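Summary for the funding panel

The consortium committed to producing paired sequence-structure records for every protein in the target list. Below we show the first two records in order, beginning with the earlier of the two.
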Amino acid sequence: MAVGVFDLFSIGIGPSSSHTVGPMRAAAVFAEELKGSGVLSRVASLRVDLYGSLAATGHGHGTMTAVLLGLEGFHPELILPEEVEERLAAIAETGTLTLAGAGGEGV
């Protein structure tokens, strides 16, 4: 089995891709499952708990940013750097997430 450099390394947002790529993908999958199961419109709030190294150092390594963006439906390999700042500013200003990219539906 051949393994390439792109199989070993993933590039993501934040100062530490190891603390952002997985959490962002997991959050995006969670949000997509909410949408796919038809319960997204019933979500009024949510809570994210981090464990292990993500809990210990995640804040400084960009984990929370990655989780917020993942919940909004962004994926690490597709998001543009300018989208990161734009969405974080909107989230901070409104206090609302647009789960799974659902137009107007936020928590």
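The next record, for a separate protein in the list, is shown here:
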Amino acid sequence: MAGLHLSNTVRVGEKRLTVLQHLGSGAFGDVYMVKDKASFTVYALKDILCTDASDIDNVIREAATLYQLSHENVIAIEGADRYSSYDGVHMLILTEYCDGGNLNERLRRGSSADQNYLWMTQIAGALSYLHDKEVVHRDLKPDNVLLTADEEVKLADFGLAREFTALKTMYQRAEDDSWLSYYTQYYMGTYCGTPYWMAPEVFACHYTEKADVFSLGVIFFAILERTYITLNGKRFYGAFKRIGHSQEKVGLGFAMTKNPHATINFSSPTENSTKQKMQELTLRCLEYEDDDRPSAAEVHDELHEDSAERYCIII
């Protein structure tokens, strides 16, 4: 992949940007820190190589609709554009820059109960907002929960992820079965391991926004329990199970496709009423049947109500 270089100046819409630093590589491309030459504002720029350009204009139009989203815990999309090189067509997505890393990295360190509660409330609020706007995330995991310098949540990579995957597989508006087949094969062989956070119904290719709620429960479990697997030397936090006599751990959702009665428990009970409520809410999000899970709005409302009760007790 040709990609961008530190000497590059790149244009996204009306913005002329200088590439400052390569921040990392992921399943959907490379991410760079860039600076607007006019305003000196720092942004994050994602560069995605698309081997089939036939549908890329539709993706850009879809990105434009996401510009209308505005929530304090959802990453702001600032622009989208494209450029061609010898290796194909590159799609550029410009977003606000978060200098606190991502939640997966942050979970390696300790955090207070109040911080955990804040993360859970903010993630649930962001997801509730997306669902209210009829945007399904489809790739909710700790790596896609970005943090500001003050450790405020910014939910990222929403809405567009499925379209990126469809482009990379050289399908035009791939159906769920073709998308998931490639998606699973692609990620199982890389460090990303996205299926570890998928709801069981996603593997059967019939799912709704409640699949996001299952993934939300996996993130909650990771925050409260700090369980992880190691892939290629990197820790990935989530909710994991062993199947049969195998020593290899899989995601809870995948384990449920083999045994719908598969469950997961917290390592130790707690007498703290607030923590107990958070654990119970987490397990409800991780129900096998999507109808048994609360909506993202209900999750957020419960957390918000509990916050109000805690505040009253303090007063």
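Regarding this second record: Residues 161-174, 186-193, 311-315 have pLDDT under 50 and may be disordered. The chain has ten helices and twelve strands.
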